[in-house]
Specification:
434 Repressor (Amino-terminal Domain); 90 residues; 5 helices
């Protein structure tokens, strides 16, 4: 089986935040709906699994729904990217 390239870098981080909050995919889908972004449980599953791209403006909705600042999310993403690139150099 051939693995496809990840379609986003934030998916695992969004999942981590969701789990830290003790929220289900249904909870996050509902919270996203409240802030103006329609995103089904299936779409969220695909985002967390890096199988669906995240549009730049969707990041703002995720920040609001997950109660995280853009700065915090950016710092988490930076950590993921540094780890990813350091692993590729090996």
């Amino acid at each position: 089986m051939q693995h496809s390239s990840p379609k986003n870098a934030l998916g695992p981080t969004l999942k981590e935040i969701r789990l830290l909050r003790g929220w289900t995919l249904k909870d996050v889908s509902g919270r996203l709906d409240l802030v103006g972004m329609t995103c089904s449980i299936r779409q969220l599953t695909r985002i967390e699994a890096q199988q669906r791209a995240i549009k730049d403006f969707e990041i703002l909705y995720f920040c609001s729904a997950l109660e995280v600042t853009q700065k915090d999310l950016g710092e988490r993403l930076n950590q993921v990217m540094v780890q990813h690139f350091s692993m590729k150099k090996r």
